[in-house]
Amino acid sequence: MRKNTKRLLAGVLTGLALTGCSAAPPQASKQAYLSFLGTRDDADCILLRSGASSVMIDTGEAVDSDHMLAWLEEQNVTRLDCLILTHPDKDHIGGVPALLEQVEVAQALQPDYRGENERNDQMQQLLREKGVPTMRVQTELELEYGELSVRVLPPQKETYKGENNYSLAAVVTHGQVEMVFTGDAQKKRTKELLEQQLPSGADLLKLPHHGRANSQSAALIQHTQPQIAVVTASEAEEEVAQALAEAGAEVYYSRGEDLYFVSDGSSLTLTEQKPLEAQSDQAA
Ligand SMILES: [Zn+2]
Fold this sequence. Notes:
The chain is an alpha/beta fold and 284 residues long.
């Protein structure tokens, strides 16, 4: 929620309290943490923590595994309450084998994808072998982890042409802070998301599909009006960059750079900004 909206809302809620209405704003008593793994190429790996609870969205590519495990260790994460695997592409599920070697996963959520995909088949097998309870999300879920509320938004159709549009999206709320994660949603899925009650005035938007543009990109940005935008690449396409500039968003890039944010329940701020590592031409 952006500041003006918050101020306005605070006024409305005060008014409601004075007239005896019991509506109360969501409260957060402790800080929550959001981090993005600095990946070698365009890839997603995102961690949310509140108290003893941890939720991860995607696992980066296989080549990011060593860095991911060290990053989790640095943050003292040995167990994930929930692992959201947005869709079965290598830059989202590539780190699953390494992750399951080191970290206990209490539950994995994935879209109801039934396409032919050897990597996905191997991952399903591995999840079974490790005894990880998995759920194919077909209807919207509302989950609570510590002070985080997590709305998981599944794709609305049974089949799509590419894998990206199967992306599970998530809206995570900590107190009044709202964060939107969109996997690799392309045109069709982004259009659906705009009909799935995304917040308008989000504190953070994880751009879909590594900042690549489609005909719905500008509408998504105009609707969510993010204060902070994260692109899981080293740049966004021009149309996306333009829409983000028009929305006045602070934009960060996670390719080659770990990003850390902290929420106090009313605002989200970057806590550390390391220089972007030189991009290697050899990066796959
Ligand atoms: Zn991707």
